[in-house]
Specification:
Six copies of one chain form a homohexamer. Chain A is α+β, with helices and mostly antiparallel strands and about 350 residues long. The first copy, chain A, has helices spanning about 10-20, 80-85, 120-125, 130-145, 150-165, 180-200, 205-215, 220-225, 235-240, 245-260, 265-275, 290-315; strands at about 35-50, 55-65, 65-75, 90-100, 100-110, 225, 230-235, 320-325, 330-335. The longest helix of chain A has 24 residues, at about 290-315. Chains in contact: A-B, A-C, A-D, A-F, B-C, B-D, B-E, C-E, C-F, D-E, D-F, E-F.
Chain lengths: ~350, ~350, ~350, ~350, ~350, ~350
Amino acid sequence: MSQASIGDMLNDKAREQMISMSNNNKNISDLKAGEKTDGFYLIKSFEVKKTTNGKQYIDIDLVDKTGEINAKVWDYSKEIETIVAENSIVKVRGEVLEWNGTKQLKINKVRGKLQDDVIKINDLIPSAPIEPTEMLSEVKSYAKKIKDAEIKLLVENIMKKFNSKLIYYPAAKKNHHSYMGGLLYHTLRMLRSGEKLGQVYEYLKMDYVYAGVILHDICKIIEMDSDEYGVVSDYTMEGKLLGHIIQGIKEIEIEGDKIGLNREKSIILQHMVLSHHYEPEFGSPKKPMTPEAELLHFLDIIDARMYDFEHALDIVEPGQFSDKIWLLDNRNLYKPTE
Amino acid sequence: MSQASIGDMLNDKAREQMISMSNNNKNISDLKAGEKTDGFYLIKSFEVKKTTNGKQYIDIDLVDKTGEINAKVWDYSKEIETIVAENSIVKVRGEVLEWNGTKQLKINKVRGKLQDDVIKINDLIPSAPIEPTEMLSEVKSYAKKIKDAEIKLLVENIMKKFNSKLIYYPAAKKNHHSYMGGLLYHTLRMLRSGEKLGQVYEYLKMDYVYAGVILHDICKIIEMDSDEYGVVSDYTMEGKLLGHIIQGIKEIEIEGDKIGLNREKSIILQHMVLSHHYEPEFGSPKKPMTPEAELLHFLDIIDARMYDFEHALDIVEPGQFSDKIWLLDNRNLYKPTE
Amino acid sequence: MSQASIGDMLNDKAREQMISMSNNNKNISDLKAGEKTDGFYLIKSFEVKKTTNGKQYIDIDLVDKTGEINAKVWDYSKEIETIVAENSIVKVRGEVLEWNGTKQLKINKVRGKLQDDVIKINDLIPSAPIEPTEMLSEVKSYAKKIKDAEIKLLVENIMKKFNSKLIYYPAAKKNHHSYMGGLLYHTLRMLRSGEKLGQVYEYLKMDYVYAGVILHDICKIIEMDSDEYGVVSDYTMEGKLLGHIIQGIKEIEIEGDKIGLNREKSIILQHMVLSHHYEPEFGSPKKPMTPEAELLHFLDIIDARMYDFEHALDIVEPGQFSDKIWLLDNRNLYKPTE
Amino acid sequence: MSQASIGDMLNDKAREQMISMSNNNKNISDLKAGEKTDGFYLIKSFEVKKTTNGKQYIDIDLVDKTGEINAKVWDYSKEIETIVAENSIVKVRGEVLEWNGTKQLKINKVRGKLQDDVIKINDLIPSAPIEPTEMLSEVKSYAKKIKDAEIKLLVENIMKKFNSKLIYYPAAKKNHHSYMGGLLYHTLRMLRSGEKLGQVYEYLKMDYVYAGVILHDICKIIEMDSDEYGVVSDYTMEGKLLGHIIQGIKEIEIEGDKIGLNREKSIILQHMVLSHHYEPEFGSPKKPMTPEAELLHFLDIIDARMYDFEHALDIVEPGQFSDKIWLLDNRNLYKPTE
Amino acid sequence: MSQASIGDMLNDKAREQMISMSNNNKNISDLKAGEKTDGFYLIKSFEVKKTTNGKQYIDIDLVDKTGEINAKVWDYSKEIETIVAENSIVKVRGEVLEWNGTKQLKINKVRGKLQDDVIKINDLIPSAPIEPTEMLSEVKSYAKKIKDAEIKLLVENIMKKFNSKLIYYPAAKKNHHSYMGGLLYHTLRMLRSGEKLGQVYEYLKMDYVYAGVILHDICKIIEMDSDEYGVVSDYTMEGKLLGHIIQGIKEIEIEGDKIGLNREKSIILQHMVLSHHYEPEFGSPKKPMTPEAELLHFLDIIDARMYDFEHALDIVEPGQFSDKIWLLDNRNLYKPTE
Amino acid sequence: MSQASIGDMLNDKAREQMISMSNNNKNISDLKAGEKTDGFYLIKSFEVKKTTNGKQYIDIDLVDKTGEINAKVWDYSKEIETIVAENSIVKVRGEVLEWNGTKQLKINKVRGKLQDDVIKINDLIPSAPIEPTEMLSEVKSYAKKIKDAEIKLLVENIMKKFNSKLIYYPAAKKNHHSYMGGLLYHTLRMLRSGEKLGQVYEYLKMDYVYAGVILHDICKIIEMDSDEYGVVSDYTMEGKLLGHIIQGIKEIEIEGDKIGLNREKSIILQHMVLSHHYEPEFGSPKKPMTPEAELLHFLDIIDARMYDFEHALDIVEPGQFSDKIWLLDNRNLYKPTE
């Protein structure tokens, strides 16, 4: 029996509580073989298995915002299975072993989160550095800057439609911004950059820039299945067969029709979504044909790259190179000494 | 003053007549420098110009199914301009000159088509080798073979919508099947081949094969502007910014919604349209993920290639090679001696 | 001591018997850890090894048409080694264990096939779905349809030469049709499809289509070393240094010369073999220059793809996607719900 | 006898005057066949030639900021040749002819610029839209923002070295910013954009951003030979054999050494110059390994593209597409109706 | 009536004579518009044509080793046509005109070569810098160095077979060594280089090196149709459909069989021919798998490149760059000042 | 505690001794599971670790010229740790085990090298087949052949600068010539080949050939960190950010300036270094523009390939194929039977 999604087991109240709790765990990435640990972690999935000699044990994958570790409860009891099955967040006590270079947690004791345990959800789950509601409100303020009433209405309608999911969706299954709130954070930084560059390249039509940014990835919400912790289990059937670019185009076509959006404007926005990956082999069969579509592509790629560089260098010492970053064509990045 | 489209100037009655007329022109491709000609041609476009010393003349591009020739009426008169402006089909008398290796027709006399002139439209305009109505009826008979009621209804509705244009649209601006009725002819041969291969690969779901073939290119009708002679003046604005693949997907989405088409079926058909060009650089951001989508691609390309080979070798002597065919990666094709 | 090839140890009589035997094994792909099994399998290879503490044991790879499993006889005796060494097909009794996620069979008992055991060879070895002799006879009937007497003679002579191996050769070492009789099955389906498409594209010269299909891959028989169960141990020296395309061309040149085949026809057929992989990077330095050579390529690729799709989707549930298929550019294929 | 460079024939005083003169020419791009013209143009080059029957004439290429036209003085006289040879700017009177679709100016009268003629140099020569001195001073103000004293000194020293040429050099022989002052204008807009994006991606080290932008293309000044009107006659020998990227790296190495620049900083700046074209096939054998190097590339390409789009759409009517733009992979750009 | 091949009209005696004649023509590449010329040239082709007003004239293409010029005899007479038709080499007197930037020779007088005219064939036809017989004898001396008796016999037999054509065949229709004796010259220099490198890389089997070099291109003789002046009119039918690599492989297979050549050696030599173009897109579906095959490729390409560089720089002044060389990826080559 | 570099622990005297010692070890590549060994090996690195139950042991990586093996001293004592820490070369006695298909050496006894032990350093470390001093002297003799005094001085100065490292540096971290003295050996063989080919292509300027070869890779010495045994631990910071090509160019620029080297010559040499990898994606943004630069590339690649083929085939039996060689695009090389 495996646990499909963390979110399924928590009611809204539980989530609120968690957010207000403080946490004093050792981070998973800091666990060292030979040491003991005693703290809170999130259960990503678990399974009851048997050893070769038929003994039952519980195999659990634990996560926090710093990483993931496999753990074992060797002394199986129905009672412990129940604790594991009924709690998303557990307090475990155990010792860290190393097996063929991989760390493993031998759990000696486990209990569910109690009323008084104080844990911050952000410590257990990787997420955007700004509060979702704050991000959403700033994105909405950009939508308000759109002067063309029709385009503004279109953008607001589509945002409204996806509102509840926008608040937590990641921007990807893996890669850049693949965490809770990542889609919103990616969109927001692109809007900020777009606004700035509009001050340098003054001939740009900012209505299209803002609308294009807000709509360009919004159908990732129907391309991927994410739980409310920003963890994507898989792509949807339509996502795999068509992809968020095609889905986004249809969205604009249909929502545009509903409000009688001028056909040319609708097509221009659809074209922006269609062309924003720029290269056919990345999913854009047409290259940008308007300056705003061209800029949209660069806003998108700059935000992804600035994210990738920042995060890859986070864990590098000054004066050192990172490991090869697959996402960046296997580059070794360099962090200057000052 | 140039003549945008031949079709604009002919009423339906005139078209009917023309079809029944017999023709005894010399073919344009057979005209030789030094010879005279006296026959019927179609006016593709014309313009009144001035020579360097200020004299007016009429510059006309004439076509028939075998090619195109530039012609001049040096003795301008308002009366002749009127004849040229008011007639699509004219009888001209003149002599063929050669200028830097290019033939040119010096027109001495020109008149419009009279009531009694008997001309076959197919002699003046390149077109598919089967009667449009016959093709349309055969295509419809394939639509009838679709067993799934929803899919059949979708296909028939979309065909109905484009019915009047399907009858004459070419399959391309240039390249394969770029002539009157070409889209229908291309579709029909793919249906025939699809049916045959379905007898070899029996596990194929023929409903998707037939629906996919009929719908795969149908939005070329809204991607290109063609007159009723199958001559494409240009791509449409939406055609340029999105393309017939994207347009076709939206069509299925919207028309499917109207009839409550099962969502999975709609997505599968949209996926077939999306993937039928196979390679990203040819416009398909997704590769086929169902056997029917895979086959659709090969039906499409085989029909295009069989067309290209047939036409390129038409004008080659047995035992000889063709010139380099740009469309076929500059191959020189070979025509066996027997 | 390892067993090079299954076929080496079976006389013809044994093979005949096997074909008539019925089988009630559990399929290897169905074996589950913790269960017992008792049935017939084919020995792919075996080796007597020692444990770290010096004890001898027998390591055996067993196969049936559904897959392969490693097995161990821990209680070594000279007698058991003899049984394993002298039988291709054995009846084993044992239990299935799992080791680091890989299944393994612990053999408790093993005996050779007895007179009365009834086993169908097709259950033990993957093979084409049609009887080899039936396939061969249908392929020969296509050769008979060739109207040009010289070309027909060439094709029949070459088929005769390879006759005894054609009956069991696979079409590849791995990938599509890499099973017993695969070469013949691939050829046959291409002939059927070629015949059908010849009814749509009537200008094709069917003599070249049929001869091209039959000859295009026939030198795979001298490119690869296959035992009579369709298992390819390796490519031949000439196969590696030249490849079946070059070998096929030489075959036509030499066999053509022997019967005084008209030179042009010989070159056209050689060209068809040379160009049938279409792209230089897939082994064809020339692209097809005749319509029949062009079609040959598409018949070949369609048959391979229809095979790949069918087999990949065989094990997928309706409404689900397959795993990534490496052979198909890592596509996830989709199986519609109905 | 041809005129190598316009700049060779003008002293500084003449240049100053020209700048203050007003101009009432018809723009070259507006000249129409059949019309007369009477105005000031710049002589790009001229040659005395002979007609087939041996008569001398003067062949002149005239330019203004809107384009170029070939002109002929059919009535040759030594006196006219002298006028043409001794003046860069001439007043011509003549009529516009058309020859095989190309316009040509038949000059009837020609004289040099007189003391009282008032012409603005910007009307005759394409140039950046901001005054060079103003641009230079803004670029210098960015150099001043560099906090690291060593890097600031390096940047200021290199700028000083190229100061006199920076004022007029174009950014390219053709393509984007290939006009007088183009290098400075390109640099300036990148600095502005870099500053803005530094406000969004706050972790960036702005010292490297500013220094990288100012230095990235500065060695175009020794890669190309430009006259002081921003017209590049050719690349230099070193420019062709090494290119401005390699030249820029050596410049930083050597100038850095002179001031004892910290070695790591020097290498990081050299790496920024080396990697700013991003792709090996565009001249960068290394990809960016620092966030500032990564951003530099995008600042560069965005400025180029925003330039290309703006200029390509300048001459397009709203609601229309541009011609194919070779520089932009043959895209047809679209100008929205509003 | 056009003249297919120069060689058709000369008997062997005439050729011998020509070779001993001295020549005092102006080179075609030195002819200047406005000058007169009086000298010997070779007729490449000619045709009797008519002017627009019906007058007959003779259009002749003349060549010498430095280039080609079109010439006209405006005063047609049957007698002059006969002179032109019956002589390959003519003495012409005329004046050089220029027409749209192209030089043309107006012939005033023309006569055939007389008994006493002394002309060196090498002045009229571009050819290798060593006497053919001398080259052939050196190539044969390398064949003699092959120690393996079978391989030596194979090489000598194949050389004998092509002996008479080897003496004059070019190595290509255009590009490197596309002149009389070019194939032999290319082969010879590769043999020399191979011998030298065999002294550095001593483990190489020189038998394969020498045999591989001699055989690698020898079937260009049956791939192309060349007249005895090294001018290739076209590729042969087999050349176009298969190419000299495939032809060479078949040659080795068949000639090897005749002398009972050890099969492994035959296959290794065939593999060398097959792989010597190295890249699939240049005609080699297999890459070299032996060191000698690997070296063969580099001997081939070095000789081609050294030829291309030498000839491109021949006409460049020291300290200057060549024009873009299409054959060398549009590089501008540089000639150092000393 | 790990041992960073072998060289750090040996004084020069020790090195000399080692060179004169004879060795009678079993080669590491010959060690078989179940056997005992007793011989000298080099310690590549070691670490004191703990088993899961807390017992200390020493983990050592041993190498000789044939390969590498992991060894364990299970009975830890401070004394043994000292022996391992203080000796680079140790005599070990133990037995070979096999663990999951990997061999491991269980060490029973270990001691440092004694005064009387005679070991040849070349048996312990892979290195070039010629004595370094001999190679250096031959390379210097080529430098002496340079006739241009300035270029000769430049080459000699740069060689002097890197003299002490040239003697042992490898040509690469891995791949061809990645062993002690490999850089020198690679350079030497290219000089020999260059000299030979200069005899075939006599127009080449040998000064540039010799100087180009000697300088082309010399900055690998500052691109990589190698110990004196030719083992590269990593690339340097400048090596990663710029690479040896860019470093070599700067070296020539600066050293050239010091001796007043004629600028054109300096640029030509820099261009040779810049272009010697030939393709942008291999690090050369410019293609060779002089014949000597073109040749340099081929000398380089031929030497690398002749090395790769020789070494790959070393371990192949005649008549057999090698495994796939990743470096050679996964080719299987063939070794002829004779």
